[in-house]
Every structure is written in structure tokens, then in C-alpha cells.
Hints:
single chain; Rossmann fold; Mannitol-specific EII, Chain A; 3 domains; six-stranded mixed β-sheet; 12 helices
Amino acid sequence: MRHLERLAAAVAGMHQAEVVKLAYEGCLSPEVLTGSAKSVDGTADGNAPARDAALCGLVANWPDVAVRTQILLSAAQRIQAPAYILRQAPGQDIRQIVAATAGGVHALRVIALAEALSRDWNLPVSMLRVEPMFDAAPEEPQRGLDALLANSFVLGAPVNIGRVADVVRQIDARTGSEDLLLIGAPHFGVAASHFAGSLPEQVARVRLGPMLMCLSEPPLSPPFRDFLWEANIRMGVQGLARDEVVRLLVDCLCESGVVPAHLHQACIRQALFREAMGSTFIGCQTALPHALLPDYAGVAAAMAVCPAGVAFGSSEGVPKFIILLVSSARSHDRYLGALARIGQQMIQARTRQRLLACATPADIMDALAGPEPAGRGLDTQ
């Protein structure tokens, strides 16, 4: 039970929510849904009520019987709440977290969960991205959006990317007995009725070590204009160091009134503190500094276009596009959605070329509002 309580506390911390521990037999009742993050003993059946507006997560032990896992996932689907299902034996130690993704809908949430657990439990993180091998001579696996945005979190390890013939066996082989394997479940519609035979169910059958499955919808990817405006774009920035660019962008947000003036210094401190932990350069000529402020609701961004580049403390490259995100744990989903939207556009070489050719902030917004990538042929250099 201690393991489950620790997980519930970490999940609640992602949302600045309270943990409510439930004791029940066989079903979820309306009283169960009064808090923001739930730690659940046992399993649930599908007779769950509509989701409470405050509910931000369901945390449960992994049932011993597969059909009960299906019932629990069905209940999560019914109340439309993210579910975090943990399998860890009493006394079983964890030495590191391994976040495995295949570029699916849960990838960004799995990465965010890995970062939260790493910070809360003081454990290192390794990222494993695998792709199935469909023919004898496949093309090289590509860095996807999940691998790109992993660099914006404090993961402390490179992303391992591989294409394999047997995904299930490969994930298990690359994850030690004392590694906590994080894996996404199928999306809600599939998990609710067809969990048997799915990738996580197959992995659970062969794996002996601890596992944590995350069931959630992908974060909504809002248009740029939901969080970035012309007034918060600075073009032709040059001759400034990293910290000076961060201060410039915070100044923009405060001058435009998007961030209250009394949060000015706190915003700078948080953004620079995050950079001190590790560079937010994500590749694709882009850096994503961010400040998470407890007293700020929503998500806002400011952008600097630096044609000559800015040294951002990364040995992998020099960013020309600096996008500062300001948010709080209360806006976790919107924050992940904004990250996804930024990644979708900045991973495209043609978008970056258009941005460098822009003459006005209005042109920048037009370039960022371009079509989403088809998912192949993306340049990440």
C-alpha cells in the first residue's frame, strides 16, 4: 500500500491536487469522486457515475486477474479520468524509471509522469522509444515528437531509439528487474473493452519487475493563438546571452499584461532555475524554457527569433527560436497541449525556414498556424 500512496502523492503533485484514499468493495460510488486525485484499493466495476469536475486522476493497484484490469479500465473510461495502475510487490525496490513509448497518444503524458516521479522520488530516468519492424530492411527509426519533447523535461538521460521485431520482448529485455517500467495503455475507446492482447497486457504477462501503466487521452493541441500573441514576439534578437533572452521574454509577458507584474521576478527565477537543472534546448533549433508558477492559472508564451542563435548550454546545438512557457500545475493538461503544438510545428524544417524569413510578428503567427505534419519525412536537425 505504501507504493500506491507514494504514487498517488506524486500524481496529485502534478496537478496541485489533494489525495483522497478510497475504501470500497466492488464498485465506485458517488462519494468516491469528491476529490481531485484518487488512490484506490482493489478493483472497480463499470458502474461508475459521471466524472466529477475536480477529478484529475485514478490511482490503483494492478489487479491479479486480467478481467479485473479490464473492469478497472472500463470504469476509468466511464468517468473519463486518467488512470495510473501500478504493479509493484511489497519490498520491491526501484533503482530507476524507464519510460517506454512507441510514439503513440500517451507518449507526452508518460514523459511528464516520468519527470514527476523522478523529481518526487529522486530517481534517474531513461527513455526508450521503440518502433515495430515491419519488413526485412526497414528505414532507420526517426526521432518523433515524443523523443523531441523529452528534452524539455528533466529526464537526465538520452532517448534510446530502436526498431525491433518483437516490441514486447525488447521492452522487457531493456528494463531491469529493479526498473519501474512506465508504459501507456491503449486509448480510452480500446482500453475500455479490448485490453486483452494489447501491448501493455502482453508486456505484463512476461515482465516480472514493477510496472506502471498510464491510461489517458492525448492532451489537446490548441492553436498557437490560444497562448501566443504578436505582442509577445521579439524578432531579430541578437547579442544576448541565454539569461538575457529569458529576461527579455518575461518582460514581454509582463508588459503585455499576460503575466501580472508582481510575478515578474518569480517568473525569471523559476525559468533560470529550470535552465540550471538542464538545458531546455530540444533540437530543431528550438529551446523551450519554462516557468511553473503556483499562483498563475493558464498557459502563456513569449517567443524570440534569434537568427544567429543563442548559446543555451547544450552541446547538441544552438537554438534560433526561444519559446518561453509560463504555467502552473493547475493547468497541467493545457501546458502539455501547448508543448505538443509547439513540437508539431517546430519539428518541421519548412516551418523553421519560414519563421526566419518573416518580417513581422503577424508573419510569425501565420507561419506557426501552418498545417500540421503528416508524421513522416520530418527533419529534426
